[in-house]
Amino acid sequence: MITLSVCIISKNEEKNIGRCLRSISNIADEIIIVDTGSTDKTIDIAKNFNAKIIKSNWNNDFSNARNLALDNAIMDYILYIDCDEELDTSNGMLLKKSLGTKDNIECYCINLINIVNGKKNMSIQSLRIFKNRPEFRFKGKIHEQIFPSICEIYGDDCVELLDKINLYHYGYDINKADIQKKIQRNLSIFREYDENEKDGFYYYNLGNEYLRLNDLEAAIKNYIKAFNIPSFDNGFRIFLSIYLVKSLFDLKRYKEALYYADKFITEYEYFSDLIFLKAICYYEIGKFSNTKASILQYLASKDKVVGYPEFKFDASTDIIAFLKELSTKSIDTKGNALTTIIIIDKDSPHLEQTIKSVNELSKEIILVYDDNKTFGVKELQHYLVKIYNYNKKGLSKTLNVLLKRITTPWVLILKSGESLGLNEAKLISKDINSNSSVGFYVPIINSSTSKIKTTEFRLFKGSEYKKYSSLNKFEDSISLQKSINTSSGCIIES
Fold first, then answer.
1. In this predicted structure, what is the pLDDT of residue 130?
2. H/E/C letters for each residue in the chain?
3. Are 241 and 270 in contact (CB under 8 A)?
4. What is the pLDDT of residue 464?
5. Which of 136, 187, 291, 304 is the most buried (most CB within 10 A)?
6. 147-156, 291-300, 331-340, 460-469: which range is least confident on average?
7. How far is it, in rounded angstroms, from Cα 428 to Cα 450?
8. How far is CA 357 from CA 175, 286, 342, 362, 432, in A?
């Protein structure tokens, strides 16, 4: 009959270790605990479960402690578990019966479920069970791994998933863990690494610590370092994809979030949570057709691959209602016929709204601004816009250069504090796709009174108007010969 050693490392875990040991007591043929200096009742509690206690000095190296436990284990297989974890006892005996049934399997993954605020937060597959062989050793001072040493000998096809076995982790539950103390301990260990030890897994885990501190900038910096190391592909790269894209999203760095989402989707084609994140990025910048396409891709990808981690970003989203909303907000641009130029001549709290109001309608958006008069414009690049500073050449010369470069048939001009409503954007789309005019005067509506303030020449064919002096003054004789109408849409002034 297959026998099982359960290996644990501990230090001052009196609040957790009893729960942990109760969960494995029925399947463990022996319990090995390496204690690194407990001063509370941890050891007394462990002795009640007939655990073998090995006392060891803590030297800021988790692998050393793990491997000491392995050195003292004598059973056929080893399950390693932490004090702040609990095995689901409903399938405990199934775990033991599953071991050793296939000759080519050296190790097993089980479901690791994080418990946060008393609720199941995320499920991943974690390698926790392996044959007791002296050549299998943990590596890494922190976030230590056993699989590299197994893989070196038996390849990466020697692992099996026991998908009915669940392990609950309470380590990041604020009600049961001193999270800040853990993070600072972990960071101090990371500082002890030599430069030649800093691989992709190092930067990934360092990024995770900063993420837990809510230092998103530092987290992103380390995640990108991990991304740029090609050899980092040890099963955790898929988590890197979510943590990096989600952190960029939370900082409203949508352009970068979309860039990395696309990069990772080429690696994990059916990772539905990542595709959903991509969709939400598009939604936040007002690209509703792109959002809809990504949501449809997300639906097509669900359940295609078993074993991907589940973050459940869609848990609070009614997908059917969301698709209906997107269908309403999507605009058929018939080949992206429009470039929008936004002239920023003063600071405005509504610049993001201005961009979002035309992002669905426009193939591209160009911001022109004077950096002597406005601030924070460069951050708007995350909305997939191009930015030009006109304070050296002047507005007219800058626009004239841009008009020659624009490749779309139509150009729309907005100013600071202006935007398009959804219906207005659809009407403008209809005008440029079904009218023989070469330009339109567009009514400017005051948002507080809903009355027309003025009508200005803002919408025109780029091929007909190549020289700009100021609004309503395009120096091109062809404008006197061609048809100019008034648009059925309007611009809303905040």
1. 98
2. CCCEEEEEEECCCCCCHHHHHHHHCCCCCEEEEEECCCCCCHHHHHHCCCCEEEECCCCCCHHHHHHHHHHHCCCCEEEECCCCEEECHHHHHHHHHHCCCCCCCCEEEEEEEEEECCEEEEEEEEEEEEECCCCCCCECCCCCECHHHHHHHHCCCCEEEEEEEEEEECCCCCCCCCHHHHHHHHHHHHCCCCHHHCCHHHHHHHHHHHHHCCCHHHHHHHHHHHHCCCCCCCCCHHHHHHHHHHHHHHCCCHHHHHHHHHHHHHHCCCCHHHHHHHHHHHHHCCCHHHHHHHHHHHHHHCCCCCCCCECCCCCCCCHHHHHHHHHHHCCCCCCCCEEEEEEECCCCCCHHHHHHHHHCCCCEEEEEECCCCCCCCHHHHHHCCEEEECCCCCHHHHHHHHHHHCCCCEEEEEECCEECCHHHHHHHHHHHHHCCCCEEEEEEEECCCCCEEEEEEEEEECCCCCCEEECCEECCHHHHCCCEEECCCCEEEC
3. no
4. 74
5. 291
6. 460-469
7. 18
8. 43, 7, 12, 10, 17
Residue 77 identity: Y
pLDDT value of residue 476: 46
Lowest-confidence region among 188-202, 233-247, 334-348, 460-474: 460-474
pLDDT band at 316 (very low <50, low <70, confident <90, very high): confident
In this prediction, residue 471 carries a pLDDT of: 52
Nearest to 138 by CA among 71, 56, 223: 71
Looking at residues 214-224, what average pLDDT do you find?
98
Residues 220-264: pLDDT tens digits? Answer: 999 999 999 988 877 789 999 999 999 999 999 999 999 999 999
Tell me whether strands 410-415 and 452-461 are parallel, antiparallel or unpaired.
Answer: antiparallel
pLDDT in the model for residue 456: 87
User: What b/e readout covers 101-117, taking b as 16+ CB neighbours within 10 angstroms?
Assistant: eeeebbbbbbbbbbbbe
How does the average pLDDT of the chain come out, rounded?
89
Encode pLDDT of 328-354 as tens digits: 999 987 766 899 999 988 777 788 999
C-alpha distances out from residue 343 to 81, 101, 388, 443, 444, Å: 60, 70, 10, 17, 15
Size (the chain), residues: 494
What are the structure tokens assigned to 408, written together? 């779309």
CA geometry: angle at 150 spanning 190 and 87, to 5°?
Answer: 75
- Residue for token pair 């592909």: 233
With CA atoms as reference, report the closest residue to 130 among 66, 86, 175, 223.
66
